[in-house]
Amino acid sequence: xxxxxxxxxxxxxxxxxxxxxxxxxxxxxxxxxxxxxxxxxxxxxxxxxxxxxxxxxxxxxxxxxxxxxxxxxxxxxxxxxxxxxxxxxxxxxxxxxxxxxxxxxxxxxxxxxxxxxxxxxxxxxxxxxxxxxxxxxxxxxxxxxxxxxxxxxxxxxxxxxxxxxxxxxxxxxxxxxxxxxxxxxxxxxxxxxxxxxxxxxxxxxxxxxxxxxxxxxxxxxxxxxxxxxxxxxxxxxxxxxxxxxxxxxxxxxxxxxxxxxxxxxxxx
Length: 268
Ligand SMILES: [Fe+2]
What we know:
alpha+beta; 3-stranded antiparallel β-sheet; binds fe (ii) ion
């Protein structure tokens, strides 16, 4: 029997997936991407400031317009839930829209990211946390993000860290076509290393945690630990140096302007 205040504590807090509790991510069974047309080449992209050299093609947005702004930047401001599907985009990418809606969890923003080649050191510099739960009412589902890799980027990988500048415990997740991840991107620092000459495309969906998402994770055998993608120690070491160099350059840039460097990079 819980005391009244204990019951209150149990009632407070967000609804989160138990599967994500330990590591902050799950990797699902791979999707057979080869069978689907390359819909990401048909949809409309717009420039949107994010970490790295990127463009985005929204499929669902705050009001169904082709824009990527956080829902809290609209009037009235709201949390990243109840995204409105953009008809013209969904008509060109029905499979992507179907996959984003398959879990049956509430969808906030849904968009395809186009990322130009990004070496490991730049990726470390790009590590950021997402602002997924601004204005999200306590007691409701925590917003996490799904990442479906669309292009076959066999040498590329997602980097996840608990601490932006500490490589200890870094997880690197391979990104072949069909790779499916769900990540608490507000908790984990994340960015992609993309090796190659062509851009990488990945479908990103904001989902509300709850029984629907839990069932989806179970259906596709989500695992919360994978072997880290193998990278030569030399490349890792060079990356650490490059991240520190770029961080220092940014700090110097802001110091010259008499401002403090914004260390917590947050992607909207
Ligand atoms: Fe992000």
